[in-house]
Write a structure and sequence with these properties.
Blueprint: E1 2-14, E2 19-28, E3 31-36, E4 42-48, E5 53-56, E6 58-64, H1 71-80, E7 83-88, H2 93-103, E8 105-111, E9 113-114, H3 127-140, E10 144-148, H4 155-168, E11 171-175, H5 185-195, E12 201-202, H6 216-228, E13 234-237, E14 245-246, E15 249-250, E16 253-254, H7 257-265, H8 272-280, E17 285-290, E18 293-297, H9 299-308, E19 314-316, H10 322-330, E20 342-343, E21 347-348, H11 355-364, H12 370-385, E22 398-402, E23 407-413, E24 416-420, E25 423-424, E26 428-433, H13 438-445, E27 448-450, H14 457-460
Parallel strand pairs: 1-4, 1-5, 6-7, 6-21, 7-8, 8-26, 9-10, 10-11, 11-12, 12-13, 13-20, 26-27
Antiparallel strand pairs: 1-2, 2-3, 5-22, 14-19, 15-16, 17-18, 17-19, 22-23, 23-24, 24-25
Helix pairs in contact: 1-2, 3-4, 4-5, 5-6, 6-10
């Protein structure tokens, strides 16, 4: 037998197949052809992975990789993190497509469009207007819609958009909250109430449990209770301490009111000068875009970059408490199903692609087994997105992990090495869209793979139960 790639002697973990053993993995034609001890046959590339974990490539259902915010670097950053399939959870879809075509690292990428009142729709749209806006997103190559508290949607249109997306069988995600609430535990409760029995992707549950209303730990357990009352809703959380926000200041104040509150909570004035001091003292960081990476800077160098950009640069703040990250990353129901179904990053071009490093820490602490970690990082999100060959060793999407350093040493996507020996080798993008967006995806990226949200676990429930 002849193979393209042969991985020798790693600990293979594939929860979908019930595999956890030292074995070889053989890849040919973009598929995993064989898993077993001491496989025979020749291979164009043989890699010794003894002492490493060999797992299905990570499926991250919350990243940000549009052209305008470091999307090219984001592709390389995802490849280095072992991610082989990702969902851009904001768009714009056209910008995600452009970045994917110009700077792709050989990954599988899908995208949704964040609707803005006054841009995509009137502030108080009719149902017909919502349906037409959804059709435009699908035609552009997107698989659905996102609502974001910072965009300024009122409660009534929020509920209407969620309902119309469900009627159309498309993806609908929410950074919870409306003009009546905020991005906190109250906003989570409100959004779930507005969604009712409809399907919904609740983004980064941990971000609503930062201690803004009550103790962060209490908020995390409240979030668990709310999610248990909405078992039809898909939820993900991330494990990084830092968030991502806007460092822009106007008239001496951070434009984002939440940045002002976070500064004050950390003992800084909620002003432009307060943010400057926080960057200089290392509490806040600004992001520097490089061709294949995004670097965090603080101190005088960070302040200089921020001021040179006239404050219009993304920032990262350490506002995610450990207690909420750990509770939401590991909490499960009596039947063993996780309350928060998947691990994501809200990363990509934001440097918080820490699912492997932080997830293996949770394994070490006994909060997750290794199989559970792989399930939450790969198998469950693959089912939710409706990709039965991914999240398991069927499609040749693979991550090889060094457990000592908790880093990914090799990433294989569609049967090709995209990250290996410290180099990003992948090129191009396999863009995932519905049949309505196939033409747009092919025109820009050249490669299209179909995905059907209506038939995915998002709507069928596959992946939501134990």
């Amino acid at each position: 037998m002849e193979y393209d790639i042969l991985l020798r002697g790693g600990r293979v973990i594939d929860p979908a197949a019930g595999v956890d053993e030292v074995a070889d993995v053989a890849v040919a034609g973009g598929k995993v052809e064989a898993v077993g001890p001491e496989l025979t046959g020749r291979a164009a590339t043989v890699i010794d992975v003894a002492g490493h974990y060999v797992v299905p490539g990570l499926v991250d259902l919350h990243v940000h990789i549009p052209e305008h915010s470091g999307g090219g670097a984001g592709h390389a950053m995802l490849a280095r993190a072992g991610v082989t399939t990702a969902l851009d959870l904001s768009g714009p879809v056209t910008g995600v497509l452009t970045a994917a075509a110009r700077s792709g690292a050989g990954l599988h990428i899908a995208a949704v469009e964040a609707f803005r009142p006054g841009q995509h729709l009137p502030a108080r749209p009719t149902r017909a207007e919502i349906r037409r806006a959804i059709e435009r997103v699908l035609a552009a190559g997107g698989i659905g819609v996102k609502l974001h508290v910072d965009k300024g949607w009122e409660p009534e249109p929020t509920g209407m958009i969620i309902e119309e997306c469900n009627r159309a069988g498309v993806w609908i995600a929410s950074h919870c909250g409306t003009t009546a609430t905020a991005s906190d535990i109250v906003g989570l409760r409100e959004t779930l109430e507005l969604a009712g029995d409809n399907r919904l992707h609740v983004a980064h549950v941990n971000s609503y449990c930062r201690g803004d209303v009550e103790d962060a730990g209490a908020e995390a357990y409240t979030a668990v209770e709310l999610l248990r009352k909405s078992p039809h809703v898909f939820a993900e959380s991330y494990l990084a301490e830092i968030n991502g926000s806007n460092g822009t200041c106007v008239d001496g104040l951070p434009k984002n009111k939440r940045v002002r509150a976070w500064l004050e909570g950390a003992g800084y004035p909620g002003t432009e000068d307060g943010l400057r001091r926080a960057i200089r003292e290392g509490w806040a960081c600004v992001t520097r875009m490089e061709p294949d990476n995004v670097i965090l800077l603080s101190g005088d160098e960070g302040v200089a970059l921020w001021e040179e950009a006239e404050t219009r640069v993304p920032i990262c703040l350490p506002v995610n408490p450990a207690i909420s990250r750990l509770v939401l990353g590991s909490s499960r129901r009596a039947d063993g199903a996780f309350d928060v179904h998947a691990l994501a990053t809200d990363g990509g071009a934001f440097p918080r692609n820490v699912t492997v490093s932080a997830g293996l820490s949770m394994v070490e602490w006994g909060l997750l087994t290794l199989s559970e970690f792989v399930t939450k990082a790969s198998w469950t999100p693959a089912r939710i997105l409706g990709l039965p060959g991914k999240g398991r060793l069927a499609d040749a999407d693979i991550a090889v992990i060094d457990p000592a350093s908790r880093t990914v040493t090799t990433t294989i996507s569609a049967g090709r090495l995209v990250w290996h020996r410290g180099a990003v080798l992948g090129r191009g993008t396999r863009f995932l869209s519905t049949e309505h967006g196939a033409a747009a995806a092919v025109e820009v990226c050249g490669v299209h793979e179909p995905v059907d949200p209506a038939g995915s676990g998002f709507y069928t429930g596959d992946g939501l139960a134990a």
